[in-house]
Amino acid sequence: MKIHKYDTVIVGAGGAGMRAAIESTKxxxxxxxTKLYPTRSHTGAAQGGMAAALANVEEDNWEWHTFDTIxxxxxxxxxxxxxxxxxxxxxxxxxxxxxxxxxxxxxAGEIDQRRFGGHSRNHGEAPVRRACYSGDRTGHMILQTxxxxxxxxxxxxxxxxxxxxxxxxxxxxVKKSAGVVxxxxxxxxxxxxxxxxxxxxxxxTGKFFKVTSxxxxxxxxxxAACYRRGLPLEDMEFFQFHxxxxxxxxxxxxxxxxxxxxxxxxxxxxxxxxKYAPVMKDLASRDVVSRSIYTEIREGRGCGPExxxxxxxxxxxxxxxxxxxxxxxxxxxxxxxGIEPYTDPIPIQPTAHYAMGGIPTNVQGEVLSDNTTVxxxxxxxxxxxxxxxxxxxxxGTNSLLDINxxxxxxxxxxxxxxxxxxxxELPENPxxxxxxxxxxxxxxxxxxRVAVIRKELQETMDANVMVFRTEQTIKTAxxxxxxxxxxxxxxxxxxxxxxxxxxxxxxxxLGNLLDLAEVMAVSALARKESRGGHYREDYPNRDDVxxxxxxxxxxxxxxxxxxxxxxxxxxVVQTRYQPMERKY
Amino acid sequence: MATPTLxxxxxxxxxxxxxxxxxxITVTFRIRRFNPEISEEATWEDFQxxxxxxxxxxxGLHKIKWEVDxxxxxxxxxxxxxxxxxxxxxxGKNRLACKTLIKDINPSKPITIEAIKGLTVQKDLVVDxxxxxxxxxxxxxxxxxxxxxxxRERLQSPEDRERFDDTTKCILCAACTSSCPVFWNxxxxxxxxxxxNAHRFIFDSRDEAGEQRLEILNDKDGVWxxxxxxxxxDACPRGIEVTKAIQEVKRALxxxxx
Lengths: 584, 258
Ligand code: SF4
Ligand code: FES
Hints:
The structure holds two protein chains of two kinds.
Chain A: E1 2-11, H1 15-27, E2 30-34, E3 50-51, H2 62-72, H3 79-99, E4 113-121, E5 126-132, H4 138-153, E6 156-159, E7 161-171, E8 174-184, E9 190-200, H5 221-228, E10 233-234, E11 239-246, H6 256-259, E12 263-265, H7 273-276, H8 286-298, E13 310-313, H9 319-325, H10 327-337, E14 346-355, E15 359-360, E16 366-368, E17 374-380, E18 385-386, H11 398-420, H12 432-443, H13 450-464, H14 471-488, H15 502-526, H16 544-547, E19 549-557, E20 563-571
Parallel strand pairs in A: 1-2, 1-9, 2-6, 9-17, 15-18
Antiparallel strand pairs in A: 3-5, 4-5, 7-8, 8-9, 10-19, 11-14, 12-13, 13-14, 16-17, 19-20
Chain B: E1 25-33, E2 43-51, H1 57-67, E3 87-90, E4 93-96, E5 111-114, E6 121-123, E7 126-127, H2 130-138, H3 158-163, H4 181-185, H5 192-202, H6 210-217, H7 231-235, H8 242-255
Helix pairs in contact in B: 2-5, 5-6, 5-8
FE2/S2 (inorganic) cluster is lined by residues 76-79, 81-86, 96, 98 of chain B.
C-alpha cells in the first residue's frame, strides 16, 4: 500500500473532472485519478451541442434558458441552480472557445447555434437556436480541448486508477473527507490518497440498463463509494431515456438530427409527434418524445416485423447538410446498420441515457450529508452529482453545460477550501475495506458469474423501470435486484492475477450497479406520481402537493450487517417560477 | 404493462433453440495471449464462438471474456468508435474492435487478433500507451495565442474553420502510429498521430505558435521520417486523411506558409 498526499484529488477525467482540474491545478496541488485514460471518457460521446444564450443568430437571453431548464425538469429543478447554469453558460462557452475549442461558425465568424429539444424563445413560443456545437461531435471536442488544456496547465494524472472507497472521518460530530482509496489496474496495488478536498466527477450509472447509450465503464463508481459510507443519493428514480438510440444497440443519435430538421415517423410514415406536441413537435423534451415513441409502438404503429421501433427520417435533408452537420451519426447508421441515411430512414428506439440524480450538492459543488449539512472537503460535479439543475428530466445540451459550469465551480471551491483546511488524520488501516473487498473476490470460489448476474440485472431494469413504470413492475424489479444482490455474494472471478485484472474490476463494478439499481427502484416505488423521466402508469399525473420534493436515499446497516434503504425528502428551491402544466 | 422489451437485441446470448434460420455462425478467434505473470512467452490461442456476424469483434471478445475465459484482457469503453480505447491488429490490419463487424472480415477463416505493434505489450491486447501520449504532448497540442484575450469569442470564418476540420476528429487511438513501419523500427519517431494533432493547431487561424510547432516537427525524429506508405490513412477509424495532413505539414515547413 502506498500513501500519497495532495491538496485536491479529483476522481474522474471526463468533462467535469478536467474542467475542475484546470482550475484546481492553478490553485492547489492536484491529482486526477481516472479509471480510463482521460480522452476515453464518455463526455466524448456527446454529440449535439452545449446550450448558452449567446444570441449570436437570433434573439435570446439567459432568463429564457433558465425557464426552459426548469420547465424541462418538470419543476423539480432547484431554481437558484438553474439560474446559475443559464447565466454562467455564456462564459462557459466563451472559456472553451478561448481554450481552443473549434466551434461551428456563422458567416460572420461568430459561434454558430442550432435548435435543440425543449429550448424555446420567450417561455415556449417557438424553438430557439441556442446550442453551440462542433459538427455532431461537440462532446468529443470539449473532451479534447479540456485534455489539451490540462496538458498546458501540467495537470497530474493517475491513469487507470480505480477509486473504490471514500474515507470519511467524524470530527466534532461532523463527517469530513480525509481522502480516497484507489486500485491501480496495471499492478493491482492499493493506494491511499490523503487530501484536503476530493471532487467526484466520475460520471453516470447507465450500465444497469441493457439498451443504453452509455459506455461499458459507466457503472456509478463514485455514487456507490459515497453511498456505502452513509451519504445520501438524491432523485435516483429519475433517469433519462433518449428518444433516438440505434435500434437494439442503443447507440446515441443526436437530437441535433431533429434540430437540423429530421422527423420521427411511425410505420404509416406519419409524423406522429404533431399529435403529442403541436408546437415543439419532434423537438419536445426527451421524456415526452420517448413516451410518444413507446405509445406508438404499443398501439401497433411501430416499424419492422416485430413493430418494435420507429424511424428517424433524414432523407429529405440535402446530403451536403448531413455531411457537414451530422457526419458521425450518419456513419454510425452505415457502420452498424448498413443503412444509407441519404435515402433510408434509420430505425431507432429510446435508449437509457442519463442519470438526473446522484450525489447531492449545493451550488458550490459541496456534497451534502443530509438536506442541509455540508461534508467539509467533499465535492461533486457533472452526472455523478445532483445540484439539481436537471430535476426530473434534463434538457439536451444542458449536460455539456453542467460539466463546464459546475466542474469549474467545484474546482475553484475545492482548491480554495484546501488552502484554509488542514489534513484530516487518516483512519487506522485506511485501505482495510478495499483490501478485504479485493481479497475476497480473488479468493472466492462461488459459482455465480459476473456476466450472468449483470445480464439479468439489465434485463429486469429494461423490462420494469424504463419509460413506463407501475407499482407492479417496480416491485418485480426490487425483488429481482434483491435476489441478484444475494447471488452476487457468491460471485467469483477467473483471473486471480495482479496485472491488468479487468475481470476483478468488472466484478467490483457490478457490485456498484446492483446497489445503485436498488436505490433507483426503491426511490421509484415510493414516488407515486409521474414527473419528467419518471412515468407511473398507475399515477399518470404530476402531484405537486405530495411530491414536489427531492428524494434522498440513505443506506442503513443493521447490527447483523444487513443493509436497507431509508428514504427521506428535501424541498425544491423555488425562486420566481410557479409550477405550470407542461405542454410542448 | 411494462416497457416493451426487445429480446432479439440480446448481444451476448447463445442461439435460441429451435430457431430454423438462426443468424448465428461459428467463428474462430485466434488471439495473441501474453501474461508475464504466467509466462514470458506470447502464444496464440483459439476460441470458437457462436455469434451473429452482424456483431462487432468487440462483442466476440466480450463473449469470450464473459463466458469462457475471464482473464482475456483488452481495453474498451464506448463500444462505438469514439473513445479510442480498443485499437488492435485484426487479421493483420489495425482497426477498432468496436467498429469492425465480424461479417466484414471473412469469418469463414480464423480471425487473428493481436495487440497493436510498436508499443510494449503489457497483457494480451493491452499495450503501454505512454510513449504514444508523450509524442502527442511534445507537439504542444493546445491553442497558443499572444496579446490580450478578447471579451467575446475570437472570430473565425467558416472557411478558416473548415481548413483544419479533418484533423480535429482524432480520438488518439494510435491505430495510425502503430501501423507505421518507421515507428516500428524507431520508437523515437513522433508518429502520424502527433503530426495530425500538430496539424490541427498549425492550420487553426486562431493559433500563433505555428512556427514553434513546425520547428519541433523539423527535428530528426520529426515529419521528414515519414515515407508516405499510407498505412496510417488506411488504419484511421475516423477516416482522417493522415498522410495528406503530414504532407501539408511538410509543405508548410518548406514554404513557411500555413
Ligand atoms: S489520426 Fe486516426 S488513427 Fe491516428 S490516432 Fe487519430 S483517430 Fe486514431
Ligand atoms: S470502445 Fe471506444 S473506440 Fe472502441
